[in-house]
Write a structure and sequence with these properties.
alpha/beta
Length: 448
């Protein structure tokens, strides 16, 4: 793009941008754009940026208070999130939000065990506690499928309480997985290589058996029984889907990515169907990475044959979905250098020239929102493909271009984008020696 054309585009974006100043009214235009959407998908450009977590929570609070949203679904495993769900609804013995988040012990712990999440969970518990006795309390659910062994145990614990004979039979089925010592990678490798038979049939059989007895289990003693059955059935489904996922990992990235995102979209639909049975039409906020929530058809993911949650939700709920993305130019981020490595406080390199992030930086605005449903002028020009940055739980500055950038058409990927030019790392609850801070974090739980 010529300098003159780029300058014109920068000026046009600046003119269209809605500044974000930290005032409660900043998101009034966003609330108007969302309208009566049933699904609001709020992304993040990294798994370790404070501003993304903070602003996502503030938007979610308004959706709950003003638009009647009754569920938050996150990029996390079902059992860990369901413990938080029980806490915010006053249904377990956890005394604090930090205790409720104790299940999030797998890598990366900082993704959900951080001060911003604690503050939001504190708020959600207080909001639910203040509701009238028979009001629908806001739930908190996990969409991911990494918890294969934890989900097996959850099924066994559930059946052990209500049907010991069924629990014994389930234990016999799940014993197929015992040979792998809860090592999901080993399970996937050995079974996909033909070195051992898979446990696919056993996982499917247990799910079908549980579903066959829905009437018997779910109607035992009212609403609480339905909730417990829903939890158990979802765990059994997760075991079945995770078993297939771990085998698919050794067939290639596209196959495993698509299985994972299909599972998350399926789980989202199951949450809605479950909540719909309780009365009002359920409305759900989803928190995941931009790469899962931004419509894959608007990125080079589609060229590789990949789909994602954003695409699937748009296809299944056309006209009822609103997707929000985040971007940043530079700052700090909490991330690891490799999988299962300690959390580090890392410096985020300034965005590459030719990227959306660099374009937004050149407006000179510290933070702003763009309505990407505007099909004229600057927004139409943004439909020309550009680089977009994605930092997950791993950040590799030395291979910035190949590791963290892809091509996208932003107005087709999202309905709105929020840009924060300078951002800082999210504060983990557990600081590692490689994570250092010079002053007390302003995001430390306030006891709100």
């Amino acid at each position: 793009m010529s300098d003159a054309k780029n300058t014109k585009l920068i000026d046009a974006v600046r003119d269209r941008a809605h500044p974000l100043t930290g005032n409660p009214q900043d998101y009034d235009p966003l609330m108007d754009l969302i309208g009566d959407s049933r699904f609001v998908l709020i992304g993040e450009a990294s798994h370790g940026t404070h501003e993304f977590y903070r602003e996502r929570a503030e938007i979610t609070k308004r959706l709950i208070q003003e638009k009647g949203f009754t569920a938050v679904a996150i990029e996390a495993d079902w059992p860990d999130a369901y413990r938080v769900n029980n806490y915010v609804r006053g249904m377990n013995d956890d005394a604090t939000s930090e205790q409720a988040l104790a299940g999030f012990q797998g890598f990366p712990t900082w993704m959900w065990r951080n001060t911003d999440v604690v503050n939001f969970i504190d708020w959600l518990r207080q909001y639910n506690d203040a509701l009238p006795e028979n009001a629908t309390k806001v739930g908190f659910y996990g969409l991911d499928l990494y918890s294969m062994y934890a989900s097996m145990q959850a099924v066994l614990d559930y059946l052990g309480k209500i049907d010991p004979e069924a629990a014994k039979q389930a234990g016999e089925r799940y014993s197929c997985f015992e040979h792998f010592g809860e090592d999901t990678q080993a399970y996937g490798y050995v079974t996909s290589s033909g070195l051992s038979d898979s446990c696919e049939e056993e996982a499917i059989a247990q799910l079908l058996e549980l579903q066959r007895r829905t009437g018997e289990y779910a109607k035992r003693d009212g609403r609480r029984a339905e909730e417990e059955f829903f939890d158990a059935e979802q765990n059994a489904l997760l075991v079945k889907n995770a078993e297939e996922y771990y085998r698919s990992m050794f067939r290639g990235r596209v196959s495993s990515w698509n299985l994972r995102d299909r599972h998350m979209a399926e789980t989202l639909d199951r949450i809605v169907a479950h909540l719909d049975k309780q009365g009002d039409r359920a409305k759900v906020v989803v928190w995941e990475h931009n790469s899962h929530l931004g419509d894959a058809r608007a990125t080079d993911m589609a060229d590789a044959g990949e789909i994602n949650v954003g695409q699937l939700v748009r296809e299944r709920h056309q006209g009822d979905t609103f997707i929000i993305g985040f971007t940043t130019y530079s700052g700090t981020v909490t991330a690891a250098s490799k999988w299962d490595a300690p959390a580090e406080l890392k410096r985020v390199q300034p965005a590459l020239s030719g990227s959306y992030e660099a374009l937004f930086h050149d407006t000179g605005l510290p933070s702003f929102m763009l309505n990407l449903r505007d099909r004229e002028g600057a927004i139409a020009s943004l439909r020309e493909g550009r680089l977009e940055r994605a930092i997950g739980v791993i950040y590799r500055p030395k291979t910035e271009r190949t590791s963290h950038y892809f091509y996208a058409r932003l107005p087709d990927q999202f309905d709105a984008v929020l840009h924060f030019d300078q951002t800082r790392a999210v504060e983990p609850l557990e600081r590692t020696p490689r994570w250092q801070s010079e002053e007390a974090p302003e995001t430390f739980p306030s006891g709100l």
